[in-house]
Specification:
single chain; 7 strands; alpha+beta; about 15% strand
Length: about 375
């Protein structure tokens, strides 16, 4: 246990909310990728006794495989959006199952864990929070990517899709802890799982802020003490983003449970204990995201109710003013008739009396309606 006492500190950098994150100086990490070369291989290295072996020139996956099979250790190959042709040679060298290879190349897979004879195939959905000044009806809140992991006895291969979720910083941190890397590919699998789930937690906190903002706007009293709600499209858009988040988290529950509970010959027993912590965090985030969905349903219903109440309030005011205007309209209508014999037509005080009665009636109706809350 002493060997992995600092496991959490190694694979978990300090969590910072995406909204509070500040720009940090860029760090240069070892990479075998030449920016001028359209290679899908981002990094390829051999590790023995937890340390990265130096190489006079960048290793190809085939050379790394031969070195590992000859001298021991394991190889960690990182790829970004490889084509079928680029991945075919690696799949052949390491004996990867064709179905897993097809999934890794095509992407758009749900999180899962599949066991083959000599390897484990794991799919993770990465989540990135997109900063925005104000939530609108077209705001994108989360962006998803994918990380596919092939775990074998002496190899670990990651295939990443999407512009987010780079693993170079994680590789660098793991290389700073040879004692942990000495545990083999299963230690890398745990580190990636923990890294992805920590990203879920940070994004969930940021999404919570967006939901709190919308909730405050919905229930804040508007003009006249009546809340008129917010644009329902904003709430619906946020709900869609939460659903995308949920599709990334929910399917991961079962794979993490299997990795933490069921003995597997490719997973070091000491490392397996720490998958329980990852499984607990996935369950917590899943409950949180499910709560987001239910809360947004309630907010959407409340917003529609607020809008309905505001419309009813407007209709009451319109009706009240219509009732007031009906009095002079009626009087003018009566005295606008062209009858020869009508009372008060030739009375000296007829006009001021009628006008006074009309104003008095209007004021009386206005006072009654205002006292009853119609105005």
């Amino acid at each position: 246990m002493s060997m992995i006492r600092d496991l959490r500190a190694v694979v978990r950098p300090s969590r910072v909310s995406p909204r509070k994150a500040t720009s940090a100086p860029s760090v240069s990490y070892d990479t075998t990728r030449d920016p001028a070369t359209p290679s899908a291989v981002v990094d390829c290295a051999v590790y023995r006794d937890g340390r990265r072996l130096a190489s006079a020139k960048p290793l190809t996956p085939h050379e790394a495989m031969r070195q590992v099979r000859r001298d021991g250790g394991f190889v960690w190959i990182g790829l970004h959006e490889p084509t079928e042709a680029e991945f075919a040679g690696i799949a052949g060298d390491f004996g990867l199952h064709p179905l897993a290879v097809e999934d890794a190349v095509q992407a758009h897979q749900r999180p899962k864990l599949e066991r083959y004879d000599d390897s484990l195939f794991t799919v993770f959905k990465t989540i990135h929070y997109l900063e925005h000044d104000r939530l609108t009806a077209t705001s994108e809140v989360v962006e998803t990517g994918e990380v596919m992991c092939f775990t074998g006895r002496d190899f670990f291969i990651t295939v990443r899709h999407g512009g987010q979720g780079s693993l170079r910083a994680l590789r660098h941190r793991l290389q700073d802890d040879p004692e942990l890397l000495a545990k083999g590919p299963s230690a890398v699998l745990h580190a990636i799982a923990d890294h992805v789930v920590d990203g879920y937690i940070a994004v969930a906190d940021a999404v919570q802020d967006d939901i709190d903002e919308v909730e405050t706007e919905v229930f804040s009293p508007g003009r006249g003490g009546v809340s008129r709600g917010v644009d329902s499209a904003r709430i619906y858009q946020l709900k869609r983003e939460v659903m995308e988040f949920k599709r990334a988290v929910a399917p991961l529950l079962r794979p993490m449970q299997l990795l933490s509970e069921r003995p597997m010959r490719l997973i070091d027993p000491d490392i397996q204990k720490y998958f329980r912590d990852v499984a607990d965090h996935v369950a917590r985030v899943h409950e949180q995201v499910a709560g987001f969905d239910e809360l947004l349903n309630s907010i959407l219903q409340a917003n529609l109710a607020q809008a309905s109440v505001a419309q009813n309030e407007d209709m009451r005011k319109i009706t009240a003013w219509a009732a007031i205007i009906a009095v002079p309209t009626m009087v003018c209508g009566v005295y606008g008739m062209n009858f020869t014999y009508m009372p008060e037509l030739h009375w000296k005080y007829g006009y001021p009396v009628i006008m006074g009665i009309t104003v008095a009636l209007c004021l009386g109706i206005h006072r009654t309606l205002k006292r009853n809350g119609w105005l």
